Amino acid sequence: MNVDIEDRRGNLPRFFTLEMLMSVLVALAGLVIIWNLVTPEANVLVLFIAGVVFTLAITVLIRLLMDPDSVRARQSNAVLQLASQTLEAMGEGLDAKSSQRICSLLLPSTAAIAVAITDDHSILGYAGYEESHNPTGAIIRTQATYATLADGKTRVLFTPEEIGFPNGAHGINAAIIVPLAVGKDVKGTLKFYYRSANHISETQKSIAVGFGQLLSTQMAASALEEQTALATKMELKMLQSQINPHFLFNTINTIASLTRTDPAQARTLLREFAKFYRSTLEDSRDLIEFQREVEQTQRYFMFELARFGEDRLELICDIQSEVNEMMVPPFLLQPLVENAVRHAMPSEGKLTIRVTGMRTGDDVIVSVIDDGNGMTQEACQNILHPSSTQGMGIAVGNVHDRICGYFGPGTRLEVESELGKGTTVRLVLVDGAIRQWRE
C-alpha cells in the first residue's frame, strides 16, 4: 500500500508549469460560463470575459501541448525522473526486493501490460498482468527468455509462439526481452509484455533497451564495488598474516625466557599477548577508532621492549584527543612502528620512535618518526614504488593503498629519511574524507 502511494507521488510535477496554469484557467472560465448559462439573471459582461479567458487559455494550452520542444522536454523530464527512481530503487544491487520495485515503477510508464525482471534461472520481480501467477523465485518458463540469456541479444517478439506461449491461450501476445549483462556475462533479463503487437512502437523499444542498459550499468557498478571491498579485506588479511610469523616466534621465545628469570612479567606478557592476537583477529572490520589502533600498537611495542630492553627501545605517543576519536582502517600504525623496530634500530644505542597525530588546517597528520639508521634518498623513493615487494616496501605500500582506498583524493603517505639520522613516515588524511567516514 505504501509503495503504491509513493509511486503516485513520485510522478507528480515538482513545480507549477505554464500548462498547469492554462488548464486551471480553462477549468475556472468553463465553470463561470456554465454558471452564467444556468443562472436566470446572467451577467453578460462576466460571460463575455469568461468566454475570452476560456478561448485564450485553451488556445495557449493546445499550442503548448502540440509544441514539439515542449513535448520532448516533458518526455525527457519524465524519463529522467523514472531513471532516477530506478537507480534509487536498485540501491546496492539487483535483488528480489529492488527488482519488484523497479517493475512497479516501469509498468505505468510504458504501453506494456506486464514488466518482469529475471536472473539466469528464475523471476526476481513481476508487475502487471497475471502478477499472482508469476511470484518471485518462480522458474523461467519461456524459451525466448532462455534464448536471450544464452546469446545476449535483445528480442522483439510479435506472437505468443515466438515468446513461448500457446497461440490463443494467453493474454500476452507480444514482448520485448532485453539482456542484463555485466561485461560479457548475461546475468538476467528485463521483459516488457504487451496485449498486442501494435503496442510495440519505436518509443517502446527505446524505453526497453535504455532501461536494460541502465540496469546493466548499475549491476556492473555494484559488482565493481563488491570486488573492491573484497580486495580491501583480502589485503587486510594478507597484512595480518605478514605480521604473524616473525613476531609470533620472537614473542614466544621472549616469554619463554622470562618464565625463568621474571615469572611475573612473563605472566603479564602472556595475558597481553592473548589480548593482542584476539584484537588482531577481530580487527577485520572496515573502521576502528584511532585510539584503539594506538593501544594495539603500544601493546605490540610492549613485547619488543621485553625482547630488546628499555635501554634499546622507546615509544612516545603524542595524539590530540579529537584525532583519537577519528575512525580509521585498522593496522595503520603497527606495521609502520614494526618496520622502524626491524629496520631502523642501530647496532648500538637507543632507538626512539615517536607517534604523533594532530590537526593541521583542513588535514589530520599522523606521523611515525624514528631517530634510527635512516636510508638513502634512492631507497626512500623506492618504498612506495609498485615493484617494492621486500622489507619496508610491503607494509608501507599496503598502508598507503588502504588509506587512499578509504579516504580518497587528497589522502597520501609521505616518507622522508636521512641516512644515519632517522626516518619519518607521514599519513596525510583529508578532513572532508574523515567527516564522511564519521557519518
TrEMBL record:
The keyword Phosphoprotein does not apply. InterPro entries: Bact_2-comp_sensor_kinase (IPR050640), HATPase_C_sf (IPR036890), HATPase_dom (IPR003594), His_kinase_dom (IPR005467), Sig_transdc_His_kin_internal (IPR010559). Keywords: Kinase, Membrane, Transferase, Transmembrane, Transmembrane helix. GO terms for cellular component: membrane. Residues 332-433 form the Histidine kinase domain. The chain crosses the membrane at residues 20-38, 44-66. Pfam families: HATPase_c, His_kinase. GO terms for molecular function: phosphorelay sensor kinase activity. The keyword Transmembrane helix applies. This is Sensor histidine kinase. It comes from Senegalimassilia faecalis.
